[in-house]
Amino acid sequence: MRMVIQEQLDKQAKLDYELKGVLNTVNSSEDTSEKIHKTLEKYRRETYYTKQCLDDLQVHLQHQEKLSALQSTNGHLIWRIDQFDKRFRESQENELMIKSPLFCDRPFGYTLRLEASLNGIGTWRGRNLIVGLVVVNGYYDNLLEWPCVLTGTVSLRDQPADRKKAVDFSKTVMARRKHQHYEKNQYIHIPHQVVLRSEHYVKDDAIFLEVRIDH
């Protein structure tokens, strides 16, 4: 009898030991699970923070790219047109407009560019250099007033060796939006006899067109 009781006690002790081991394993698993959960939560927060940083950096880079595309933000642009002879011949063959770099009339203002046809367009073709001032889609358009009324002075810069003798050819121009109906002063024309017969307006196969927006 004692042997049977002892056997049962031994079995109970063994079961208690095994149960204790199972409980320890369960507790250990719960601790491990909690640690894993905390680690995953930490990584989730760090991943979210990293994504936010990358998104902010991307927005910043996009903004910088837009700004770097602007030649100026004070309403003043000097546009050098190189390879004048080649471009003039191309303009004689095709009625095309060449485009200047973009600029703004002021910080966070309207985005503009000059357009020019070296051999003219329409009734001016073959006799005049034509220059227009165009308002293009800009970064801050939704904060600006429309329609906009902008005027400026476009100058063909004289290039004499003695700057004191420079005589620029200047005219007033009104800015227009793409596909807007033509109005007075939306193009200026500079006669070829002025551009081509002067030894100073074309120099080193280049001309300079300058525009200043009225404020």
What features would you highlight for this structure?
4-stranded antiparallel β-sheet; alpha+beta; 2 domains; 6-stranded mixed β-sheet; 215 residues; Apoptosis, Tumor Necrosis Factor Receptor Associated Protein 2, Chain A
Detail the topology: elements first, then pairings.
Blueprint: H1 2-68, E1 76-81, H2 84-93, E2 98-99, E3 103-104, E4 111-117, E5 128-136, E6 151-156, E7 169-174, E8 176-177, E9 187-191, H3 192-195, E10 207-213
Parallel strand pairs: 5-8
Antiparallel strand pairs: 1-10, 2-4, 3-4, 4-5, 5-9, 6-7, 6-10
- CATH class call of the largest domain: Mainly Beta
- Number of spatially distinct domains: 2
Number of beta-strand segments: 10
Helix run count: 3
CATH topology-level fold name of the largest domain: Apoptosis, Tumor Necrosis Factor Receptor Associated Protein 2, Chain A
Return the string of H and E elements: HEHEEEEEEEEHE
Mean of all residue-level pLDDT scores: 80
Kindly state the percentage of residues in helix. 25-40%
Shape: elongated
Which regions are unreliable across 5 or more consecutive residues at pLDDT < 50? none
Cα end-to-end separation:
115 Å
CATH superfamily of the largest domain: Apoptosis, Tumor Necrosis Factor Receptor Associated Protein 2, Chain A
Q: What structural class should be given to the helix and strand makeup?
A: alpha+beta
CATH architecture of the largest domain: Sandwich
Domain MATH: 76-213
Organism: Culex quinquefasciatus
Protein name: Traf3
InterPro entries: MATH/TRAF_dom, TRAF-like
